[in-house]
Design a protein that fits this description.
This protein has helices at about 15-25, 35-40, 45-50, 55-70, 85-95, 105-115, 125-145, 155-170; strands at about 5-10, 30, 75, 100-105, 145-150. With about 170 residues, it is of the alpha/beta class. It is globular, with a radius of gyration of 15 Å. Bound molecules: adenosine-5'-diphosphate (ADP) and magnesium ion. Magnesium ion (MG) binds near residues 15, 16, 32 and 77.
Length: about 170
Amino acid sequence: MNPRAILIGAPGAGKTTVGEILARDLGCAFADSDQLVEAENGQSVADIFVNLGEPFFRQCESNAITQALSGFDGVLSLGGGAVMDMNTAKELTASGSPIFWLEVSSSVAFRRAGLSAPRPLLVGNVRANLVSLLETRTPIYEKLATHRIDANTYDPQQIAQQISDLLTNGVPC
Ligand code: ADP
Ligand code: MG
């Protein structure tokens, strides 16, 4: 059993928002790696970073994703940095699940990342940190993705619909 769709991309790309809508449209369960780690530790991601440190968070994140990849068949959204773990990256590819990269420009990510929960890695000069994160992560998103979705201009419902159509019609990447 593996996820029927996995969403990856930058902080603020819309992975959580679109994933929830997609799961509802498909009538299946939704899981988000950040939420899985928060539930396990009883703290927000931001608090885990402060109280327990990033390496601890990354370990929990990697464990949560390993479990989901073999025991969860709904829509799985990943935290933006999860793909940087080499083991996670290998397991994502091996899972055979379709992997949708919600692609956004750094300016769109910047605008949206400020709208929701605090983002621990973006504190300080948010814009510069985001540009640098994206430079490092973009090649990995690109390599792992089986489908690229333009998440700059469409609204979350439209993006979920595009993904749902791709899943239903089996349109090649
Ligand atoms: P991620 O999980 O990728 O970090 P979120 O789903 O938390 O991103 O979205 C961040 C913010 O951007 C939220 O306030 C959400 O409502 C908004 N948002 C997400 N996708 C879009 C979109 N396609 N158009 C406009 N706003 C969006
Ligand atoms: Mg999210």
